[in-house]
Design brief:
It is a single chain. The protein is of the alpha+beta class and 158 residues long. It has a single domain, classed as tt1808, chain A, CATH 3.90.1570.10. The strands form two sheets. Strands 3-4-5-6-7-8 form a six-stranded mixed β-sheet. Helix 4 links the parallel strand 5 and strand 6. The termini are far apart.
């Protein structure tokens, strides 16, 4: 399957799972808890509050070398958003990609996603743990704070 087929397939419309595609077009489904959704909401709110321009994008589909990945929350500048706003899946990665780690994730999966997002043009990758602790990365490695949003908190409380 390709991403357009997944998006338009009637049986896949109301699944309670996050859906992605692997490099062979196979559907991957990941169940999430309410706390996962709450962290996504807080992340999106904080990004929107701290950045005066651009768009926050929850559940943003990104075309990668290993299929379509769906980042929990992303932020795209106005320039990048102008490129991707009418696409089925982003051909260019938003500048910030944030994943919320859950019990169904592995550290290796997060490392793979980080690499794929950077390959597609992300400037920063953020990881939120199940406890709300934040980690920030750019292409060179881990950062003490986000370089793009230095006032972003190091921990999020629900």
């Amino acid at each position: 399957m390709n991403w357009l087929e997944v998006c338009e397939h009637p049986r896949l419309q109301d699944l309670p799972f996050k859906i992605e595609l692997d490099e062979d077009g196979k559907i991957l489904m990941t169940p999430v808890k309410v706390s996962h959704s709450a962290f996504q909401g807080e992340l999106e709110f904080l990004l929107r509050s701290l950045l005066q321009t651009g768009k926050t994008l929850p559940e943003c589909a990104i075309a990668t070398q290993k299929g379509t990945k769906v980042v929990d929350v992303a932020w795209a500048s106005d320039a990048v958003f102008a490129i991707i706003k009418n696409e089925i899946e982003c051909s260019v990665c938003p500048e910030i990609c944030v994943e919320v780690f859950s019990a169904s994730n592995t550290s290796q999966e997060m490392e793979d996603k980080k690499k794929l997002y950077f390959e597609q043009g992300a400037l920063e990758f953020w990881l939120c743990t199940e406890q709300g602790d934040m980690s920030f990365f750019n292409r060179k490695g881990e950062l003490q704070r986000s370089g793009l949003v230095p006032d972003f908190p190091l921990s999020i409380q629900l």
